Records
---
Amino acid sequence: MAKHRKPTLDRRQVAAEILKHRGDALVVPGLGAPTWDTAAAGDHALNFYTWGGMGGAAMIGLGLALAQPKRRVLVITGDGELLMGLGSLATLGVQQPRNLAVIVIDNEHYGETGMQQTHTRLGVDLAGIAKAAGFRASGTIYGGAQLKAWIPRFYRQPGPVFADIKVTTQSAPLVLPIREGPALKNRFREALLGAKAFE
Ligand SMILES: Cc1ncc(C[n+]2csc(CCOP(=O)(O)OP(=O)(O)O)c2C)c(N)n1
Ligand SMILES: [Mg+2]
């Protein structure tokens, strides 16, 4: 196992920096803090918030990416959330969606439930797993300059693209989006499909 490097990036700044460039991308935030981070960067009808659903964000992203091959899809999730659905990396490696990026806001803990350490704090290398699963690009991001260099890849590089972004355990004020699932789903479908959403 590689020696542990102390994370320094701020999760809210990371999310805001990434989402500044979102254009018409479809964004699937994982449950808990990545959802609050995404909402804090600006609520958007093309955010498909997953609220309490854990472990499925990357596979929801795959479904969207396959259904909407002309649109870019960003999954922005937590280390704990991805670890719960780790097999999704293998499926993405097999499916090779060219328009999908999976971005992990990795604070190395289950933050939302009381800051228990996750496997990433104990040396598990998510970017290494993604690379071995067949992602076209995969990396671990520790600093601001590195993040800047990666952001265009999230939106343009042929996927699947994977990035594990190491952030501090500093928590940020809650910014909660709409809570009601059907309202979120209908808003998302309408923004994506227009009138066809309700045919
Ligand atoms: C199936 C399931 N198990 C447990 C939970 C409780 N839970 C909610 S958020 C969370 C931790 C998420 O950790 P992570 O994805 O790393 O996000 P962080 O808060 O650290 O940014 C857990 C265990 C849940 N919502 N669903
Ligand atoms: Mg976490």
---
Amino acid sequence: MLREFIAGLYDSGDLVRVHRPVSRHLEAAGLLKALDGQPVLLDHVTGSAHPVVSHVFSRRDLIARALGCPPHEITPRLAQAIDHPTPPPLVDACPGQDVVLPEPDLDQLPILFHCAGDGGPYIASAVVFVHDAEYGRNASFHRLMVLDRQRLAIRIVPRHLSAYLERAGGELDVAVCIGLPVQVLLAAATSVDLGMDELGIANALAPVPTVRCQTVDVAVPADAEWVLEGHISTRELVDEGPFVDLTETYDLVRRQPVLTVRRITHRRDALYHALLPGGLEHKMLMGLPREPTIWRAVNEVCDCTGVHLTPGGASWLHAVVGIRKQHEGDGPAAIAAAFQGHRSLKHVVVVDDDIDVYDMTAVEWAIATRFQASRDLVIRPGETGSSLDPSADPETRATTKLGLDATIHRTVGVPLDQARHGHQKVVWPTVDVAAFLS
Ligand SMILES: [Mn+2]
């Protein structure tokens, strides 16, 4: 669970702990931005009795550590969990319900106001759980803007929660959880079919005991630090935003529904997980769960050895795909499949399996030494892109997609292994460096 992982980071000296009071208005976000990529615990955030943790899963190695596997195994493990979900167990005891606030009051939570132009304080780490008689349970991330002590504006993109809301006639009971273990955060960000329980994916990664909510008919992770039970109504729409999105640019202000909180329960000494908008943790949790779908799509056309949605591309718009090339057509086929596997993808680089997809210097080296623009460039104009790309058409999201096949090219008549020979890095002599420097 989240607090055990935080305790482990503290014990190993991997947690920056801030004892001084920090204002939740702008100051905390500024401090978190300066410490991006480094797990942080803020002991005292003004106006709240609860400590803030952030950047907990801001790096691939941190997620790997939480899942107990090497970094390169995260994508295949997640793909495996999506293919073979297991129903999470229901338990009675729930630390997340240890404390029940007498009156729901969002001001008790150290919700941060991030940037001067924001529409309000924002919760960005929250996963919303709903239940439907036919579809079953759904879990998805939604940013929540504080309107007052009981009400939040909820951003709902037209995906699963909007389908549940429509079926419920625009009136839907929900449970919002904050402070969740890594497997739940990753599963909630996957893109799977409507009616598939994301907690089944989470439970296949690591056990997720669940517990019934007190006023809402849905079971949520028992290890959650906070549970906000409430109701979404589309009868009243409010301005949601401005909000700093994944690209660190402002998203549009939209008319969105109101989520009214009716009950707040939390663990004793509950931690509040603050996700810095546009920060590395936001990018990691949003982008990493899209890598398995690219992985699977590319594996249908050739042998995929790795996928990396790079942080420089906001972990959303740029991918590096590694393949074990068998045929000359594998590169272009992998480019087309990658775009199928992640619809928002804009630029993709395909490299051979001797290139580490996480090492951007190695990827650039592959482009420099193996790529010919007249031969290996794929340009796809008139595609529908991501709403997160400010350079796409704001109305239609029309964009141009680009693929670079930076795999070794095989000249006609030259066997592949022979073609590879002239493109591989030399093997340097190995020496005992320490012996020369002592
Ligand atoms: Mn879903």
